[in-house]
Amino acid sequence: MTKAIKLTLTEDEAEIIVDALEADMEGYLESAKEARGNANREDVKTFSEAAERIGALINKVRALLD
Known about the structure:
The protein is an all-alpha fold. 79% of the residues lie in helices and 0% in strands. The longest helix is centred in the middle third of the chain and has 27 residues, at 11-37.
């Protein structure tokens, strides 16, 4: 298991992180789409999993903002 950390942020800082994560997630989704077009299943899996993990983190941060 990975070590948990505590981080104190302002709401603005958390929104900046969410925005950056969304941009990163879009890049992974685009890479997965390209990999699908190239019939590269392993890359599709890798990029899709990364996008899912980023999405989960976005949801976790957003939940703290609500």
